[in-house]
């Protein structure tokens, strides 16, 4: 008899129905435009992510770029700026299955951010090519 061991994978619906394992990091120093984006890796595939630009409203504007690849977030490929932005004090939550997120300040100054995520029990290595988004095909 074969030794079969079930393990969760990308299409394991139950992983996204139950509550996520908490991940939280605050007071991240986000690099200035023109430098490499900050990579925030997760130990497991995410169920959701919340990114917050923690620069106070009313301070000098430090718009935060949020993307899913270094190239897409930096906009280093002409015409492929695959990121969204958060103004001072703004946050956004998305139900994304990712292994990392990239952050970059949209100005010549550093910024600050926090990231909260719910993690599944799906290992990042169990999904081939899930880490290879280049930022050139709309995913950034």
Write the layout of secondary structure elements.
Elements: H1 13-17, E1 21-30, E2 38-41, E3 44-53, E4 64-67, H2 70-74, E5 83-86, E6 91-94, E7 100-105, E8 111-123
Antiparallel strand pairs: 1-8, 2-7, 3-6, 3-8, 4-5, 4-7
- Taken in chain order, the helices and strands follow as HEEEEHEEEE
Q: Beta-strand percentage?
A: 35-45%
Examine the coordinates and then state which fold CATH places here, giving the name of the CATH topology: Jelly Rolls
- Strand neighbour order, sheet with most strands: 1-8-3-6
- Give the distance, in angstroms, between the N- and C-terminal Cα atoms: 45 Å
The coarse silhouette is: elongated
**Domain module tally:** 1
**Main sheet attributes: strand count, strand direction, barrel closure:** 4 strands, antiparallel
Q: What's the count of strands?
A: 8
Low-confidence spans: none
Query: What would you report as the Rg, rounded to the nearest angstrom?
Result: 16 Å
Give the name of the CATH architecture: Sandwich
Helicity level: under 10%
| Tally of alpha and pi helices | 2
């Amino acid at each position: 008899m074969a030794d079969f061991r079930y393990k969760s994978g990308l299409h394991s619906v139950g992983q996204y129905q139950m509550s996520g394992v908490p991940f939280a990091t605050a007071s991240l120093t986000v690099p200035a435009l023109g430098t490499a984006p900050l990579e925030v890796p997760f130990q497991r595939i995410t169920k959701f992510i919340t990114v917050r630009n923690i620069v106070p409203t009313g301070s000098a504007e430090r718009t935060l770029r949020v993307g899913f690849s270094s190239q897409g977030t930096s906009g280093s490929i002409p015409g492929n700026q695959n990121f969204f932005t958060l103004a001072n004090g703004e946050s956004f939550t998305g139900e994304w299955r990712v292994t990392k997120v990239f952050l970059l300040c949209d100005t010549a100054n550093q910024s600050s951010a926090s990231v909260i995520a719910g993690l599944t029990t799906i290992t990042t290595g169990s999904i081939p090519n899930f880490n290879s988004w280049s930022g050139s095909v709309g995913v950034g």
